[in-house]
Write a structure and sequence with these properties.
The complex is a heterotetramer of chains A (about 220), B (about 475), C (about 675) and D (about 300).
Chain A: H1 2-21, H2 25-50, H3 55-83, H4 95-115, H5 117-122, H6 128-145, H7 149-169, H8 176-204
Chain B: H1 2-19, H2 24-47, E1 56-58, E2 61-64, H3 68-98, H4 111-130, H5 134-152, H6 158-190, H7 201-204, H8 213-231, H9 239-246, H10 249-273, H11 279-302, H12 307-328, H13 331-358, H14 369-372, H15 374-387, H16 394-405, H17 408-433, H18 445-453, H19 456-479
Antiparallel strand pairs in B: 1-2
Chain C: H1 2-28, H2 33-59, E1 66-70, E2 73-77, H3 79-102, H4 111-130, H5 134-152, H6 159-187, H7 194-209, H8 217-224, H9 227-248, H10 254-277, H11 282-309, H12 313-348, H13 364-377, H14 385-401, H15 405-437, H16 454-472, H17 474-480, H18 482-488, H19 502-534, E3 538-541, H20 559-562, H21 564-569, E4 578-581, E5 592-595, H22 600-620, H23 628-650
Antiparallel strand pairs in C: 1-2, 4-5
Helix pairs in contact in C: 1-2, 1-4, 2-3, 2-4, 3-4, 3-9, 3-12, 3-16, 3-18, 4-5, 4-9, 5-6, 5-9, 6-7, 6-8, 7-9, 8-9, 8-11, 9-11, 9-12, 10-11, 10-15, 11-12, 11-14, 11-15, 12-13, 12-14, 12-16, 13-15, 13-16, 14-15, 17-19
Classes of the chains: A mainly alpha (about 220), B mainly alpha (about 475), C mainly alpha (about 675), D mainly alpha (about 300).
Chain lengths: ~220, ~475, ~675, ~300
């Protein structure tokens, strides 16, 4: 079971690199969907290793798989098609440079987990902390450097996934109501962000958040 | 049981909103009725304090509970919502009729959506105050962001869109960091000598529980960053001026008056969990952020061109003061919070009236309010003196207590900053109220007359502040 | 004893009740100005009379000091409070009477608001005097600031009134902030902060009393305010600054306080009067002369405290007594002068001295009153200000006679400075009275000169009679009021040192007699001249104009010209203050000289300070740049800084030399471990 | 030394009677210097006699001060006369601090004159008044420095004791200081009475007058009052200088009485001599000159402080 866990975490790490170098918007959304699915499998694997089977956990796991893997990507694709945005993203930082930066961030994450042995011991596998930290930093990096509103939503989703990797990896269980609440919030957030992007496109005729700076002081 | 009622009642009224879509008067009356019902529920609690009506258990762990401090915040939020809803009842029709300033193309949000989201926003705030579990607290705070984001879009202009997008994104990042912080706190508990049972506040603050100090610090930093973003402490404040100035008057009143207090409550809860050896670190962080907020807000207020943004910066400054009060003088915190919320609500409602009458938010274009809007002008100046802490207002008492408990160097810096804030706001308010009205103002006669009728709630709030001021002065006499 | 305590409480409550409800009632009858006028005026006058009945016995120590609680707050009326209440009440009475006449013309419709703020300002000033602990003082102090701000901003249509009101409001608030700082630092246990507490106290009270650099609001606020209001502010409100110092200043060594007050007094007196010379606006001239007289009062107090520190009884009594007496005299005289300035404004519509002239023919009684009070205020003998100045001279020369050389040097400089400021004051008031009342009217006034308004003359005569009475009762005032008043102040050591008053009373009675001698001599010579001319023919001719064909009124010496040699000598009106339209061609059309005298306090201190704050504000605005990406970046940087600080502070102090932390994350400079 | 009030009253009466003689003496000495015969010594008396009998013309623009100004000035000066210790006898009206009353009475007289001058509304009188006020303000300082010196030298604040006290210590520095102070008093006297180095009483050019410009519009008894008070002031200030130079314990009262009369007349001759030999200073130089006088008076005080070993 342990090797399946580390396989999944390894896949997640590779996914971060792909996300950094993805130049097509549609491609980015697919990667986020894959990340959602991997996250669902990860929670299943952690439950196996800690033996915490109960129906509540399974319900949460299936729901998160469905929402993060299926519903949200579909929503993003639908928004993209409706506002017929141009395919490629104009990043503030070049693709190769962002790849190097993500690599550096992941290296930093590994280095951080190496100097805090106590934490790693408690997690399901030694890879959990670095995977969580690198995904979080990738999400934030995407939000800072990508111009388009939709990519910022994607960045935010990656950021949330990173946090839930840490949550599931370290086997912190908050009870059914809270887990459902988390999922509902994330879904509602992305839904409203989609609506906002739709409105921005209608009144600004573009969704480049970099030029949304009228309200400066 | 009452707690569930407090959360579900507004949702119930919210559900009724789409049904009354066709009849605007009934739709608008939903708000004051909801406000009144919340106050009745709280009154019920006041009459029989001995039975704990609030706690709600789910699977052994209490989900909703109300201790002394959260009961105070509940009453404050309910009171504020009642006042704002009564004002909104009159303000909404007036705005629709007179707000010609919007570009003809842009539309305003549909009435029932506004009422729906407003009620949802209030219920989520009640939920965040009443929640007894850290995770539920996070869900509720995130839900308040979601409920209040569409409200900013009431007048769907370019500015409000941009403000809403920034509000959504920055608050979500902040709340995400808070979630990571909560997980880190749980993790710190898990790896410590005797881990807490669950993330409920009762278990976390149980006597035997201990936390791993280093991981607790890191967790606290993330929580502070997260809830600090929602609270508007400086490095994380960037969304606040845009959101509060673009939102319509009742919404910005609630945002400033009630929402910032819920996040303050969240920070108070995390601070209360801190083990002894971590407490000095947490207090230092809060002091640094508090002082930074007052500093930056002071220097930003001076050069302000827009009076709603000026009020937003004053909220940032006052929340910075609340952070300082949290570390140095807890007793004065509740007085400061209630005084700030009431006077800020009054000022934002008045700002809404001025916007309605003058159709502009720039300070230089609004002149001669004493001749065009006499009542609003008087209340505007009373608000200025109340919010800047001149003696008759309770804020003077709390600022005096804070300054006595601060180390002298910080006290001098704080007083200088408070003076700069007073100078900045006085310049703006005086130039608005005095002077001869601009030549073009006579054709907006109807709008000005409508704005003059809307001064009932702010007037009541002003009276409340003065009475509160007198009571707190007497309280201060026994204290010192 | 019980009776007096009860009656004092009832009187105090009556005064508050009268003023407060008079104000509220006149506010609510704003619609009917006539009713509001009489309502407000009557309540103000009754309040002041009741207050005098309360304050006079307390000041004259017929009734022991009262201490009581009213509305939950603690108040006390003792000799010191009574002494400083009297100017407030008397001026309030006079100003209320004068406002009836003054507001007939331009402020007529807004009587309700005027009387509301007028009564509340009086109320606040009485509360400041009666405050027992620092909470009541701060409350009353800020209330006084806000209410008098509303009065200063009464005619807010003009731009300069708004600017003046804004400057005044900020000055009052800054004063309150310094006071808060003083009370906070005074309460601080460790002694290191006692010095700063005293400094903050002096700054806070000095802002209200017009210290040299902190005086900038005074010449702005007084011309902007209606005349009765500026009379109360300059006569009664400035004294409260000194009252605050005497009662609420934390304990400090008399020597240090003496040197401080001496320095401030001397510089204030000279700065005030030199600037008064160069003023074109009549009320600004009077405002600067208030700064000068406050400087003289501080000079007296400074010499008194020096005497206290040197155990030199004569110097202490003459100095302190002279300072307080000067406050009293200045209050009466300056109040009359401001009311007269109001009368002048009513009849000419302007306050610019160079535009007036020849008013003596329209306002004969005001002319004589103005010249008499001006002479008295510049310290000339028959006036009452001479009594207090001679006391301060005595204190200075006691210092000269005392053994200590340093005190000798300081005292002689003080005496010479006082003499110089006396001479300049005479020059300034000659300019004011001559250019306004005497000579021919410089520009022909368009409206016909309406007769002198009786209503306005009454209060002025009342105050002048009071000034004359205070010449007569000066020795009585000196013997049994001043020692009692001075004992009350904690700084003067409350009775530990005999403050007997025999040092000055002999001089005072002699000077009183000689004042009467002068008046008698003038009468005799006047009668002699009258008898001499009775038989002669008395006709009038035009003034000697050296035979020039077309003498016009504009050839007269204007006020600015009158003091031009002096102000050029003090570098006030040279350089960038003077813009000239030169004479061109053989038949010059039009040439002009425009001289503005800017206040050095403003130019050198306050304007650079506000520019510096504005520059900082512009730099901080860059934080709010509007770019979403920069905001997110700012959040992340702040987060990383806090994390580094968290980990750094949690490392055990005896950490391994090379911390296991990543070398890359350097310690963020502003997150240094601040252990509170 | 035994006080003899009789000689004090005699000094007072001679001052009242002989005051107009002093301008005559000054004009006579000036005339002798240039070889002219000059007006008779009693000419001022004749002028006064003539003036008191003439009619009075009043300017149309004046509204009152022109009438009571001369009376006020004369009464101030008459009162100031009471405080000087003629023939070194203590004046019966002396009290502590009467030196300041003396100085401010002169100030009152000057204030009256200036108000009277401005009342006529003529540019010449305005110019004279403005200059008078400027120099007066600057001399106040010097005069009070002299009073300070006298107070320290005589250890008392009473003008009579100040002027009639013996030398504090016949050490050369103290004597030098007394002479220096007397010199400063002499300069102050020249400025106050508008004698030549500062103002020319006999000039006919209105633009150059100071004191004369202020009394252009007076006629008849008013002009008489003013001329008489000008003469009184001259006598007063000269007497002040002379009494400073006469140490108190020199001789018995009658001898001192005669000495002080001769001293005053000698002072008149010295003033005449000074006027004959020196020309007027430029106006812009006068303020520096007066401040110089103030500083020398302070130096004199410093000398006495050192001379008398730092006072008792």
């Amino acid at each position: 079971m342990n090797d399946l866990l580390s396989l999944l975490l390894g896949a997640l790490l590779v996914l971060n690199l792909l996300l950094a170098s993805a130049s097509r918007l549609r491609h980015c959304i697919k990667l986020v969907a894959i990340q959602g699915v991997l996250l669902g499998l990860l929670s299943l694997a952690c439950a196996q290793s800690s033996g915490g089977h109960n129906w509540q956990f399974l319900l949460v796991m299936i729901l998160s798989l469905l929402i993060k893997g299926g519903l949200l990507p579909y929503l993003l694709l639908y928004t993209m098609r409706r506002i017929s945005v141009r395919r490629e993203l104009e990043p503030v930082v070049g693709y190769s440079l962002s790849l190097v930066i993500i690599l550096a961030l992941t290296g930093g994450a590994f280095w951080l987990s190496s100097i805090t042995p106590t934490a790693v011991a408690h997690g399901a596998s030694p890879l959990v902390l670095p995977a969580a930290l690198s995904t979080i930093s990738t999400g934030l990096f995407l939000m800072v450097t990508r111009r388009k509103a939709i990519t910022q939503v994607i960045g935010f989703l990656v950021f949330e996934n990173g946090i839930s990797i840490f949550g599931t990896g370290m086997m912190i269980h908050n009870g059914l109501l809270v887990e459902l609440g988390l999922l509902l919030d994330i879904f509602a957030l992305v839904f409203i962000m989609g609506l906002a992007v739709f409105n921005i496109n209608r009144s600004f005729q573009h969704i480049d958040t970099h030029s949304l700076n009228a309200l400066g002081d | 049981m009452l707690a569930l009622l407090m959360v579900l009642l507004p949702l119930l009224f919210a559900a009724a909103a789409p049904i009354l879509r066709k009849r605007p008067l009934a739709l608008y009356s939903l708000l004051p009725v909801a406000g009144l019902s919340l106050c009745l529920v709280l009154a019920a609690d006041l009459f029989c304090p001995e039975r704990d009506l609030f706690s709600l258990y789910l699977g052994g762990t209490p989900i909703l509970a109300a201790d002394a401090i959260s009961r105070f915040f509940l009453q404050l939020t309910a009171g504020l919502f009642l006042a704002v809803s009564v004002h909104a009842f009159f303000w909404l029709p007036a705005t629709r009729e007179h707000s010609s300033h919007r570009v003809p193309g842009t539309r305003t949000m549909h009435r029932y959506l506004f009422v729906l989201f407003l009620l949802a926003f209030v219920s989520m705030m009640n939920l965040s105050i009443l929640s007894a579990h850290f995770g539920l607290l996070w869900v509720a705070v995130e839900a308040t962001t979601l409920a209040s984001a569409p409200l900013i879009l009431y007048h769907c202009s370019e500015g409000s869109l941009e403000a809403m997008w920034k509000y959504l994104l920055l608050c979500s990042i902040g709340i995400g960091l808070a979630l990571f912080g909560i997980l880190l706190l749980a993790f710190a508990g898990k790896i410590s000598s005797c881990p807490p049972a669950s993330l409920g506040f009762a278990d976390l603050s149980a006597p035997g529980v201990s936390f791993h100090p280093v991981w607790f610090k890191i967790g606290f930093v993330f929580c502070l960053a997260g809830f600090g973003t929602k609270m508007g402490l400086v490095p994380f404040h960037s969304w606040l001026p845009d959101a509060h100035s673009e939102a319509p008057a009742p919404v910005s009143a609630l945002l400033s008056g009630a929402l910032l207090n819920c996040c303050l409550l969240a920070v108070m809860r995390t601070l209360r969990l801190a083990p002894a050896e971590v407490l000095p670190f947490c207090r230092t962080m809060l002091t640094i952020l508090g002082l930074l907020s007052v500093l930056v807000a002071a220097f930003l207020i001076i050069r302000q061109k827009d009076f709603k943004r000026m009020l937003a910066y004053s909220s940032i400054e006052h929340l910075g003061l609340c952070a300082l009060l949290l570390c140095y003088c807890q007793t004065a915190l509740t007085t400061h919070v209630i005084a700030h919320s009431v006077s800020k609500m009054m000022l934002f409602l008045l700002a809404g009236n001025i916007l309605l009458a003058y159709d502009t938010r720039s300070i230089s274009k609004v002149t001669g309010m004493f001749s065009t809007l006499p009542r609003t002008a008087c209340l505007w100046l009373i608000g200025l003196f109340a919010i800047c802490g001149t003696p008759p207002s309770p804020l003077f008492v709390t600022e005096y207590l804070l300054v006595t408990s601060l180390p002298p160097l910080l006290a001098i810096l704080l007083l200088v900053l408070l003076f700069i804030v007073f100078a900045g706001m006085a310049t703006a308010c005086l130039s608005m109220t005095m002077g001869t009205p601009a030549p073009g103002s006579h054709e907006r006669q109807a709008a000005q007359a409508a704005a003059e009728q809307l001064t009932i709630v702010p007037g009541a709030a002003a009276l409340g502040i003065l009475i509160l001021g007198y009571i707190t002065t007497l309280w201060m006499k026994q204290l010192l | 004893m019980l009776l007096s305590a009860l009656s004092c409480f009832i009187l105090f409550a009556a005064v508050l009740f009268l003023l407060f409800f008079g104000a509220v009632w006149s506010w609510f009858s704003r619609r009917r100005p006539e009713r509001a006028k009489w309502l407000g005026a009557l309540s103000a006058m009754l309040g002041c009379c009741a207050g005098t009945v309360l304050a006079l016995p307390a000041a004259a120590q017929w009734v022991p000091a009262q201490h009581f609680a009213f509305l939950g707050l603690h108040w006390q009326i003792d000799a010191l409070a009574g002494f400083f209440m009297l100017p407030v009440l008397l001026l309030g009475l006079a100003a209320a009477g004068h406002s009836l006449g003054y507001l007939q013309g331009h402020g007529g419709q807004r009587q309700g608001t005027y009387w509301f703020f007028f009564n509340l300002t009086l109320l606040a000033m009485l509360l400041v005097c009666a405050a027992a602990t620092y909470i009541e003082l701060l409350l009353a102090w800020e209330l006084m600031g806000v209410m008098s701000f509303a009065l200063v901003a009464f005619s807010f249509q003009e731009q300069e009134t708004r600017h003046a009101a804004w400057v005044y409001l900020l000055a009052c608030h800054a004063g309150a902030v310094f006071l808060i700082l003083m009370f906070v630092l005074a309460g601080n246990p460790n002694p290191g902060y006692a010095g700063t507490a005293v400094a903050c106290g002096l700054l806070g009270f000095g802002l209200k009393a017009g210290f040299p650099i902190l005086h900038v609001w005074l010449p702005e606020a007084h011309p902007a305010a209606p005349a009765p209001v500026s009379a109360i502010m300059s006569a009664a409100m400035l004294n409260l600054g000194i009252y605050g110092i005497l009662r609420f200043l934390p304990p400090v060594s008399p020597g240090l306080l003496g040197w401080l007050l001496l320095g401030l007094g001397l510089s204030g007196a000279l700065l005030g009067i030199v600037l008064a010379l160069a003023q074109v606006n009549l009320k600004r001239l009077l405002a600067y002369s208030s700064i000068e007289n406050m400087g003289i009062a501080f000079l007296g107090l400074g010499l008194g405290f020096l005497g206290l520190s040197q155990q030199n009884a004569a110097m202490a009594v003459c100095g302190l007594g002279g300072g307080l007496l000067h406050l009293w005299n200045h209050a009466l005289l300056k109040g009359t002068l401001f009311l007269l300035a109001g009368a002048v404004f009513k009849s000419t519509g302007t306050l610019i001295i160079d535009k007036m002239g020849g008013l003596g023919k329209d306002l004969p009684v005001s002319k004589n009153l103005f010249i008499a009070n001006a002479a008295a205020l510049s310290g000339l003998p028959p006036g009452n200000a001479f009594l207090s100045e001679i006391m301060i001279y005595l204190a200075a020369f006691q210092g000269v006679l005392s053994g200590n050389h340093v005190i000798l040097a300081a005292a002689i400089i003080a005496a010479v400075g006082l003499a110089l400021s006396g001479g300049l004051a005479a020059a300034a008031f000659c300019k004011a009275s001559a250019a306004v009342f005497l000579g021919a009217a410089r520009n022909p006034r368009n409206h016909e000169p309406h007769p002198e308004c009786r209503l306005m003359l009454g209060p002025e005569l009342f105050l002048s009679l009071l000034a004359l009475a205070s010449v007569i009762f000066a020795p009585w005032l000196w013997e049994n009021i001043l020692p009692g008043v001075l004992q009350q102040s904690p700084l003067i050591g409350g009775g530990s040192w005999p403050l007997s008053a025999e040092h000055g009373s002999q001089t005072l009675s002699a000077v009183r007699n000689f004042s009467f001698a002068i008046i008698a001599l003038i009468a005799v010579l006047g009668f002699l001249r009258h008898r001499q001319l009775r038989r002669k023919v008395l006709d009038t001719g035009c003034t000697w104009d050296c035979g020039y064909a077309l003498p016009t009124a504009r050839m007269q010496y204007t006020g600015t010209a009158f003091t031009q040699p002096l102000s050029d000598y003090f570098r006030l009106t040279l350089g960038r203050h003077r813009s000239t339209v030169p004479v061109q061609g053989y038949f010059p059309q039009e040439a002009a000289v425009h001289i503005t005298a800017s206040d050095p306090g403003d130019r050198l201190v306050w304007h650079p300070l506000s520019r510096f704050t504005a520059r900082i504000a512009d730099k901080t605005r860059r934080i709010q740049s509007g770019y979403l990406h920069l905001y997110i970046l700012m959040i992340l940087i702040a987060l990383i800084a806090m994390l580094i600080y968290a980990v750094a502070s949690s490392l055990p102090p005896a950490a391994a030399p090379e911390p296991a932390l990543p070398a890359a994350g350097q310690l963020h400079q502003n997150a240094a471990p601040l252990q509170p | 030394m035994p006080q003899n009030p009789f000689f004090w009253w005699a000094g007072l009466i001679t001052a009242l009677l002989l005051a107009p003689l002093l301008p005559g003496v000054i004009n006579k000495t000036k005339a002798c210097f240039v070889g002219r015969q000059g007006p008779s010594l009693l000419q001022p008396y004749y002028n006064l006699h003539k003036l008191f009998r003439k009619d009075c013309i009043r300017s149309s623009t004046s509204c009152g001060p022109l009438a009571w100004a001369p009376g006020l000035e004369l009464s101030a000066l008459l009162l100031a006369l009471l405080f000087l210790p003629y023939a070194n006898q203590l004046s019966p009206f002396a009290f502590t601090g009467d030196a300041f009353l003396f100085a401010y009475l002169l100030g009152l007289g000057r204030f009256a004159l200036v108000i009277g001058a401005m009342d006529t509304g003529s540019s010449f009188e305005g110019m004279g008044a403005s200059r008078e006020v400027q120099f007066a303000a600057l001399t106040e300082g010097a005069f009070f420095a002299v009073i300070g010196f006298l107070a320290f030298a005589s250890r008392s604040l009473n003008l009579s004791e100040m002027l009639s006290c013996p030398l504090p210590a016949n050490v050369p520095t103290v004597i030098a200081a007394v002479i220096l102070a007397a010199g400063i008093a002499f300069i102050v006297m020249l400025v106050e009475n508008s004698r030549v180095p500062f103002d020319d009483p006999e000039t006919h050019l209105e633009l150059t007058m100071i004191h004369e410009a202020m009394i252009l519009d007076y006629s008849g008894p008013d002009l008489g009052f003013i001329l008489y008070s000008a003469a009184l002031k001259l006598w007063l200030m000269t007497a002040l200088v002379v009494l400073m130079l006469l140490p108190g314990d020199l001789a018995s009262a009658p001898v001192l009485f005669i000495l002080h009369l001769l001293g005053v007349l000698l002072g008149g001759i010295v003033i005449g001599a000074v006027e004959a030999v020196s020309a007027r200073f430029r106006f812009l130089k006068l303020p520096q000159f007066l401040l110089g006088a103030l500083c020398t008076a302070l130096i004199a005080l410093a000398l006495t402080v050192i001379g008398t070993g730092g006072g008792r």
